[in-house]
Structure formats: structure tokens, C-alpha cells
Design a protein that fits this description.
The protein is of the alpha+beta class and 212 residues long. The chain has one domain: Jelly Rolls (Sandwich), CATH 2.60.120. The chain is 38% helix and 22% strand. Helix 6 crosses helix 7. The longest helix is centred in the C-terminal third of the chain and has 25 residues. It is globular and about 50 Å long.
């Protein structure tokens, strides 16, 4: 997170970076070449997954209006100003996906997150002994895969469409582009994602009986 904040500060100030953090310029690929622990496996970007899924592009303007309506009811995402949401359109992919498709697959390395615009997705984790555990069922407005967006790390679980669904997708490459061309928007979005991840991790910690 410190490295992320350094990059945001450089982008907003136009200052030269310090230490081992490379300069933010037209070749910037901070999130799309992010770090993660352990040996790296093949990275599955959204473009490849969309082909596998047979995803159909959605009209951006109508999809963005749906996203705005959903995020207006979210405690954290509602803090994004209307003009900020309008600026996000250039960085998002909007797609329709048929039922029973694995949008995210457990253990793969990925670098995109999805926002459910319509439909339902189930979050499952396959245990080492072969049992599949259902972790959550998600619907419109929910975010999935945001941790791998930030670190290009291994997916903890699979996310599968239960019914025909519509998604907004933000890739690491698009987040790099946002960081370069609209650092204020990138800073706001990353702060919101960090806050939502913190809330989620605290909830898990509480369920495990280890309050932080």
C-alpha cells in the first residue's frame, strides 16, 4: 500500500520518484506488473476470460447508468462524485455473461475485478479434500476480485454466474491508465477498495474469534 501511495503522490505532484520505485510515465504498468507471493503462474487477463466466456459487450452509457444507480446505495462507493463516475466510463469494460460460467477461477492468477450490474454469482472454494464450500452469493452492486486487481495475486475462490448476468470489469491495465491520466480518481477508487477490503477482513477475523 505504501508503494501505491507513492505512485499516487508522484502522479498528482509530477515529482520524480525516490528509491526503487520507477518513474510514472507513458510506459507505466504498476498494477499490471504488480507483485505477489509465491511462484507466478499464467496470468489470466479479462480479455482472455471474456473470450472463454463468450461475453457480449454492453452499451457503455446504459451500463454506466446502472452502475451509478447501484453505487449510490453503497456506503463507500457513494462518496464518488457523479463526474468521477462519468470519468470512469473510459476505464471500464461492460459485458453480458451467460449462466453457469466461471468468471473467476480458483487458484489462477488474475488482474481484474468485476462489479455485478445484474444477475447473481456464487462464490465457491474447493477444499484440499475435494469438498466445495459455498462462501457467498452475490448480486447487483457487489464487487468481486478486487484483491487480485491490486496485486495480480492468486484467486482464493471461484465466482460463477447462477443466471445470465451483466458485469462491469476493471483491469489492472485500465487502473494503470487511470493512475497516469486521472490520479485523483485513481486515488479515490483505491482508497475505497482498501476500506472495503479492510471491512471484509475484519468481519472474517471477527467470525474466527480474532478481533483486530
Amino acid at each position: 500500500m505504501i508503494r501505491i501511495l507513492q505512485r499516487l503522490r508522484q502522479a498528482s505532484e509530477g515529482a520524480a520518484p525516490d528509491g526503487d520505485v520507477p518513474r510514472l510515465d507513458a510506459e507505466s504498468a504498476f498494477f499490471s506488473t504488480a507483485w505477489h507471493g509465491g511462484p507466478q503462474g499464467p496470468l489470466v487477463p479479462w480479455e482472455a476470460r471474456a473470450v472463454e466466456l463468450g461475453a457480449r459487450p454492453l452499451a457503455p452509457r446504459a451500463a454506466l447508468r446502472r452502475l451509478q444507480a447501484l453505487w449510490a446505495h453503497d456506503r463507500y462507493l457513494s462518496t464518488l462524485a457523479p463526474d468521477a463516475l462519468q470519468r470512469m466510463e473510459r476505464y471500464l469494460h461492460f459485458a453480458a455473461v451467460k449462466a453457469q460460467r466461471d468468471v473467476i477461477q480458483q487458484d489462477e492468477y488474475g488482474n481484474f475485478m468485476v462489479v455485478v450490474l445484474a444477475g447473481e454469482l456464487v462464490v465457491n472454494r474447493r477444499q484440499p479434500w475435494g469438498e466445495t464450500q459455498r462462501l457467498a452469493q452475490t448480486g447487483p452492486g457487489d464487487l468481486l476480485g478486487e484483491m487480485s486487481l491490486l496485486d495480480s495475486g492468486q484467486r482464493f475462490s471461484s465466482c460463477t454466474t447462477l443466471v445470465d448476468s451483466e458485469l462491469a470489469v476493471l483491469s489492472a491495465e485500465a487502473l494503470d491508465d487511470m493512475l497516469l491520466h486521472d490520479p485523483a480518481l485513481a486515488a479515490q477508487l483505491i482508497a475505497i477498495l482498501a476500506r472495503k477490503l479492510s471491512v471484509r477482513l475484519r468481519a472474517v477475523s471477527s467470525r474466527l474469534g480474532h478481533p483486530s
